[in-house]
Design brief:
The radius of gyration is 18 Å and the shape is globular. The chain has an eight-stranded mixed beta sheet, with helices on both faces. It has eleven helices and eight strands. It is 33% helix and 14% strand.
Length: 319
Amino acid sequence: MAVNTIASRPDDRPPPTVPHRLLPGYPDPAHWWHVPATGQHYLDTGTGDPVLLLHGNPSWSYAWRHLLPVLSPHVRCLAPDLPGLGLSPRPAVAPNAADRYAAQLDHLDALFAHLTGDRQLPAQGWTLVMHDWGGPLGIAWALRRPGVVARLVVLNTIGFRWPPGYRLPVYLKWIRDFAPVAALAHLTNAFPRAALRAGVVHPLRAAERRASLLPYARRSDRRTVVEYVRSIPHSDDDPAWRLLEPPDGHSSSLAALPVFIGWGMRDPVFTPLVLDEWTRRFPQARVHRYADAGHFVMEDAADELGRHIRDFLLGRVRR
């Protein structure tokens, strides 16, 4: 399958510069890499089978800092910052949501080509760890690349149309649907600030909260944060959902994969209704529900979640 790599565009903005000393718990710069074709920043740590960790919005690879030390002794962890987020460059914003989704998938293709080519990682046997926006992007990319992904780890995310009865939180609808609200969110950085407080049950330390927000300190670095929210599908007929469906006449290549689901039960966005749909679609999944964790389950349940994912990847059974 041909890879649609992305050339740098003259209006791309460089990534923010964040000193490592301001990122408590984050791997040191020896593990920081960039994709030559796109400039996309990613972490590469550990040895073994490849595990691709896809974060959401407004988070970035800093969100994986608790899991990486637990997983990297056993697997090779590749944790990119999605284009426009974290320490990756700020590309020009595509004119519509469909183009924005396509651009994100093209960046994943470019990352994969770099890792399997320049870095000589295997072209099969990958595990996807997906949170928030990383879920739909990961599922769409796995369907685009049949045979590459061998296992799925699902953490408070979506990979299908919203289940019947689901209601998007009103503050996300306001940003999505009303341009003045979106403009205000961009100006004030309100969405990342609110997400880091409402998305956890146990508050982050001040230094960790500052570190999470550092890539979005400048107004010019926040546009993608708002555009992700603006790209949330409006209805079941939204063309974006088609990326999460196998090609016509084909069954999903993901349906029978081993799946681990780790779910923060106090998530105000991805409610238990969404979890129920995951378990319906993947009845073979190993499921762990974390009663005292919110949207950022990797923050609230870091120790327990890390052990559970490690055991899943190593084929251990722990209930």
